[in-house]
Amino acid sequence: MLHRTCLAIVLCCLSRTLAQPASAQSDSQIPPQAAPVRVDPELQLRPPPKPGGTKTPEGLVHLDVLVTDASGMPVSGLERKDFKLLDDLQEQKIVSFLASDGPDQRQAGATATFQKRQPPVQVILLIDTVNLPFEQVAFVRLQVAKYLEQNAGHLAHPTSIFLFSDSGLTVQPRPSIDGTALAGMLNQIQPSLRTIRSSQGADSELQRFQLSVNQLISIAENNVTKSGRKLLIWVGPGWPMLESSNFTFSGNDQARYFDIITLLSTRLREARIALYSVSSVTLSASAFRYRDYLKGVKSANRADTGNLALKVLVEQSGGRVVNPDNNLTGQINNCIADADAYYTLSFDPPKAEHADEYHSLKIKIDKSGLMPRTSTGYYDRP
Asked: What pLDDT score was predicted for residue 219?
């Protein structure tokens, strides 16, 4: 059994990301037992936000909203009057509204705060070799390459390839719509020897949990100042939820988990990242336990490792958990379909009574048969 102090030390490593400056983010998130992380220089130094211009006014919350029909296809052509936004079940005034209908984006609403077309949606394909069964890694790489090479290698959206391994994150220098070139680059990356093995039992689960959450924090942090909506498609089953009796934690541990939960929720929303989960690994009955953690965490004494599960974060960010099968190419295409028609709206949150006050969010559409998806909540401050 892992001692409580061991788990507390790991959580301290995670919680330090809240206090570290951006330029030190990568080093603070590397577990002591892991090898140095290989990170693209562009991800190590995040440029400061440009003054004025498109800077979001203080306290203003922006949401990307996807609306689908009964068949699951994105719906375009909706107007501001079709939307109702509820914050803790209380209707809030929509301050700005923008409809992005794929290539022909149009501005809607006389009081929209956006004066320019939105940048193209970016796609990040992350291949998670840390949590994939070893025998699945080669198959997954082939399926991702097949996706990149379809349509003669022409991608509809700027795409980046992230390879997540025991040694960290390998990232290409910049997004590209040349799928053939990306597939070639992916095939040139040599898989590293695994240092975290399932035979290590609870130690392996703890390392994979820590390394995975750290990398997601890093990705979100480094995309906050990058404009446009992003679809982060996580290719793999996700990391352990640490639910077994091997893991115990104290009230101080829960407080550290709560810090990470609020950080990830905020950074994913600010970075305009919608998470997606695709996998070729058949889910066991216990894997659906993540559904017990979908509600937002309102206080530290309710925080749990399950609140940081990949699929929980996926659904809370407005993304989707795609049913696993051996057609990963089809699963990715299914996710990419969400990139075209969407809506961006903003509102002023009600005054918070305390720091990290959780607010649930819900969008209602004044038309039958339509289903909206967006962030399911946010954390506010006075």
From this structure: 97
